[in-house]
Automatic annotation (TrEMBL):
Documented EC number(s): 2.7.7.13
Designated name of the protein: mannose-1-phosphate guanylyltransferase
Superkingdom to which the source organism belongs: Bacteria
Keyword field: GTP-binding, Nucleotide-binding, Nucleotidyltransferase, Transferase
PANTHER family for the chain: MANNOSE-1-PHOSPHATE GUANYLYLTRANSFERASE
Record Pfam families: NTP_transferase
Length: 360
């Protein structure tokens, strides 16, 4: 049900290291038109939520470095709706900041928290799922996450095990497992009682504040001290002080895995976390002989690979590759095995340690 009490928080502060160098620190993936649709992932996410609540109730949390990018892509976002983090402290701080700010002015708010870099299809089914979730948290001390039935043993997603209950689509969460091994993921898929953790959360604002006070009290204290400064000129200065005391922890590890009131709503829409070249390759419908090509390229005996270049005048020539990513940008060429995300993050970190930000 569309309501003035519905709010949406879009998290848009990540650097997208798993898509480097296609995603860069000065223009991460959420600000890019990944599929050539004329809208960035952030813009797609924003417009996806317009049927859920009034425009004024959509908040975007991002790093202060991306202020201009957000304002350029979402000019309708008001200043109070743009939450600028001075430091990256992971999703717990990001979500706490947004929820405490909303609570200070809207104590009856029901909030959807969503990443900005997901691909979602069958949007009518998505909206129905969101509305069902929002209805279920009215006046309920319930922390809800959306789970999707796995159709393959994906190792880059988190999994939720649930218990059967009286409700058809909402179940009690039993266990969390973050990024399992291939063998473990196969067991999860075969069991039938595990779902992918989408990272999309739904709750009423009082429930999440109670949970923060209980499971992350130091973080809660930081944002409660700002109570009189939200929606004022003092907010920015107070935020600098607050973030200097925030530890780096995700909402999953810091809160959701500890809380006893976590439920999962089973979504029946199509969903993908666009966190890797592998997922973009799988979603691309216009493959050339099994290859995804966003470049001026000549390929010989290349199979199941992806070639990306930001410069259409640079000709990329490759031969004899199978299951590789070739990514080209100014002064940088990256050639890596596709699908090995753990090694990819190590490579990104090694380049950062050796060269600083020059190639990031």
């Amino acid at each position: 049900m569309y309501s003035e009490n519905n709010f949406v928080v879009i998290m848009a502060g990540g650097i997208g290291s798993r898509l480097w160098p296609f995603s860069r620190t000065d223009r991460p993936k959420q600000f890019m038109d990944v599929f050539g649709l004329g809208k960035s992932l952030l813009q797609q996410t924003y417009h996806r939520f317009l049927p859920i609540c009034p425009r004024k109730n959509i908040f975007v949390v991002t790093h202060e470095d991306y202020r201009e990018l957000v304002q350029e892509q979402l000019p309708e976002i008001g200043q109070d709706q743009l939450l600028l983090e001075p430091h990256r402290r992971n999703t717990a701080a990001c979500i706490a900041y947004a929820c405490y700010k909303i609570a200070s002015a809207y104590p009856n708010a029901r909030i959807v928290v969503s990443p900005s870099d997901h691909a979602i299809f069958k949007e009518e089914a998505f909206h129905n799922c969101i509305f069902t979730g929002l209805e279920s948290v009215i006046d309920q001390d319930r922390l809800l996450t959306i789970g999707l039935r796995p159709h393959k043993a994906e190792t880059s997603y988190g999994y939720l095990q649930y218990r059967d209950g009286d409700e058809a689509t909402i179940k009690k969460v039993k266990t969390f497992t973050e990024k399992p091994s291939k063998e473990m993921a196969e067991l999860f898929v075969d069991s039938g009682d595990y779902v992918w953790n989408s990272g999309i959360f739904i709750w009423n604002v009082q429930a999440i504040i109670r949970a923060l006070r209980k499971h992350l009290p130091d973080l809660a204290d930081v944002f409660e001290e700002m109570k009189g400064d939200y929606f004022s000129t003092a907010e920015g200065k107070s935020l600098q002080k607050a973030y200097s005391h925030c530890k780096n922890i995700s909402i999953d590890y810091g809160l959701m895995e500890k809380a006893g009131n976590v439920d999962v709503i089973l979504g029946d829409f199509e969903w993908t976390d666009l966190g890797s070249f592998q997922t973009i390759h799988e979603l691309n419908q216009e493959k050339e002989e099994g290859n995804t090509v966003f470049a001026n390229a000549m390929l010989f005996d290349v199979e199941d690979s992806m070639v990306v270049s930001e410069d259409p005048e640079t000709l990329v020539v490759a031969e004899g590759l199978e299951n590789y990513v070739v990514a080209v940008r100014e002064k940088l060429v990256v050639v890596v095995k596709k699908g090995n995300e753990r090694n990819y993050k190590k490579i990104f970190k090694a380049v950062k340690n050796k060269t600083g930000k020059e190639y990031l």
